[in-house]
Design brief:
Layout (H helix, E strand, L loop, with lengths): L1 H17 L7 E6 L3 H8 L8 E4 L7 E5 L4 H10 L3 E6 L2 H18 L15 H14 L3 E8 L5 E7 L11 E6 L8 H14 L4 H5 L2 E5 L4 H9 L53 H12 L4 E9 L3 E4 L10 H16 L10 E4 H5 L7 H7 L4 E7 L16 H25 L6
């Protein structure tokens, strides 16, 4: 008991120091009454330092993280637009310390064992990397593949899960990736839970026998580690090829794919949506591209898992609809209903639709759009729910250990529904 208390005390001291950069930051909830207000408020996302976590629309509020020196400016601009705001979290540092406290306490109780990762903590890169290798060693259906190395040299591994070692070309492939955006920690359990249900605790044999799977749990390892150790709300990767004086590192990997690249994203290196020097300028996006291209003739569903918002989105980010938009929507609704059937009652139902229409803003260069553009029939972005808990001040990207396994479980239900849709509509499985 004393050891646990001592470790919690150390973690608290470390958290205070690590989160000092967020001293004075405030999280706002913003409400808009019409489209004009929404556009005026949305324009504030281009102001350096203002971190718009979600876009306010007439049908739902948005959330924005604002540093102390910009509070008066932000509030006056919101009011000037005719919109309304309220302070959701006055002291973001306290919110960050609470997340650290909860996760550290959970780690002390963790039931992780050799060869099995628990779902009571958010696992670090090294633990996940070792786990993938161990799974491949233990299970004949699993191959751990090194896709290449990140900007800082970390190995980016993915699993190929197949009862036929990918040799049966009649089987469709489903490709799942998570953590393209570093701060979206709750997406990792979704990928790890899918791996568990396909390899360790198989309850849906048809999905293992009739589909080949590719799962990339940590698509942005450098950014992920940086968010774990230095800057909790870091979004981008950690590349430095575009900067002068070692400021404003990183590229938004979900704006770096070669689909309308650079048209609806930022060319400012300090922006969280900076698209990089060129399409696929980043090793992380090049790795995803290579996987998609290698198996493009067989991948029938691509799921890029993000947070937050309780949404299943499809292309294109410009607002243009793919030719198979009706089928995309049908499959998306089926996945959403499967999640809604098992989600916590406190969470909103999933929304399904074109990303530009649902999110109320347009983007370019996303992984989802690229997958759709190269011919993958069903390409989606999952936006997992936020953990919003007023009791402990957690919101947005922050994770409560109580929600980790639930996030994995409910997302798996959506994945299962999507996989069965693929099986029903794939010509590959019709013998």
């Amino acid at each position: 008991m004393l050891r646990v208390a001592f470790l919690l005390s150390l973690a608290f001291c470390y958290a205070v120091a690590r989160h000092e950069q967020y001293k004075g930051y405030v999280l706002y909830e913003v409400e808009v009454a019409n489209e004009q207000q929404a556009q005026e408020v949305q324009a504030l996302r281009n102001i350096p330092g203002i971190d718009m976590w979600s876009i306010a629309t007439p049908s739902r509020p948005g959330y924005t993280l604002v540093p102390g020196p910009l509070r008066i400016f932000f509030e006056s601009e919101v009011v000037g637009a005719g919109a309304k705001f309220k302070i959701e979290v006055e002291d973001v540092v306290e919110m960050l310390k609470k997340e650290d406290e909860l996760l550290t306490a959970a780690e002390m109780r963790s039931n992780s064992t050799n060869g099995r990762l628990s779902f009571d903590v958010i696992h670090r890169y090294a633990a996940v990397d070792a786990y993938l290798v161990d799974l491949a060693r233990r299970h004949s259906t699993v191959t751990a593949v090194s896709g290449g190395r990140s900007f800082e040299g970390r190995d980016i591994k993915y699993l190929k899960i197949s009862t036929t070692n990918f040799q049966n070309t009649r089987k469709p492939i489903i490709f799942i990736q998570s953590l393209l955006h570093a701060r979206e920690w709750v997406t990792l359990p979704a990928a790890l839970y899918a791996i568990r249900k396909l390899v360790v605790d198989i309850t849906d044999r048809d999905l293992v026998d009739n589909i080949d799977w590719i799962i990339l749990p940590i698509a942005n390892p450098d950014g992920y580690e940086f968010s774990q150790t230095r800057t909790r709300f870091w979004r981008k990767n950690r590349s430095t090829g575009h900067i002068i004086g070692n400021v404003c590192q990183g590229v938004d990997l979900n704006r770096n794919f070669d689909i309308n690249w650079g048209t609806l994203s930022s060319n400012a290196p300090c922006s969280d949506t900076f698209h990089g020097r060129a399409a696929f300028s980043e090793p992380e996006t090049a790795i995803v591209r290579n996987i998609l291209q290698e198996y493009r003739s067989r991948i029938e569903m691509f799921l890029d898992v993000h947070s937050f918002g309780s949404m299943i989105l499809y292309g294109y980010g410009t607002g243009e609809l793919p030719p198979n938009a009706l089928s995309l929507n049908t499959a998306g609704v089926r996945m959403a209903r499967a999640i809604d059937a098992v989600k916590w009652a406190s969470k909103p139902n999933y929304r399904v639709g074109n990303s530009a229409l649902v999110l109320n803003y347009r983007d370019s260069g996303s992984a989802n759009d690229y997958g759709q553009a190269i011919g993958i029939p069903f390409a989606y972005t999952y936006e997992l729910p936020a953990y919003r808990n007023q009791a402990n001040s957690l919101n947005g990207f922050l994770v409560d250990p109580d929600f980790i396994e639930q996030a994995g479980r409910e997302t798996w239900e959506g994945i299962k529904a999507g996989a069965r849709f693929v099986l029903q509509h794939s010509s590959r499985n019709k013998h």
